[in-house]
Design goal:
Elements lengths: L7 E2 L4 E6 L2 E6 L1 H7 L2 E5 L6 E2 L4 E7 L3 E5 L4 E6 L9 H4 L7 E5 L11 H10 L1
Antiparallel strand pairs: 1-2, 2-3, 3-9, 4-6, 5-8, 6-7, 8-9
Length: 126
């Protein structure tokens, strides 16, 4: 699976992409492959103000659970409610399925994250 170049990546396997004045966040293809079939996505608290790297939610599969981290500091302004009924949509389309939206305190912080090639190197090493 190729890593899209239209977004930035955290070493913790989240992707982030600007959508207007907010950022949408999801997990990467390699992350969902390691987890396997997802059965739950949640614990995302709309209105929470998070530091970069803070836990924003959780994804659970039949074999593991993993925290989802905020790639940048900001306020959670949305959760993809469709994931309540279809968490497996992330397995089917990890780059087409967002988990939460965050309004970044400083949108320029995204520039400090990895580009597609940088993330590919991290994914290959893990």
């Amino acid at each position: 699976m190729s890593i899209p170049s239209d977004r930035k990546y955290a070493k913790t396997h989240e992707w982030i992409k600007a959508e207007g004045d907010v950022m949408i966040v999801g997990i990467t293809g390699p992350a969902q492959e390691q987890l396997g079939d997802l059965v739950f996505v949640g614990d995302v608290k709309v209105g929470a103000k998070l530091a970069a790297g803070a836990t924003a939610g959780v994804v659970e599969s039949v074999k593991a659970a993993s925290d989802i981290y905020a790639p940048v500091a900001g306020e959670i302004v949305g959760f993809n409610e469709a994931l309540n009924d279809a968490p497996e949509s992330i397995n089917a389309s990890p780059y087409g399925t967002w988990i939460f939206k965050i309004k970044a305190n400083n949108p320029a912080d995204v520039d400090g994250l990895l580009d597609a090639a940088g993330y590919q190197a991290v994914a290959d090493a893990s």
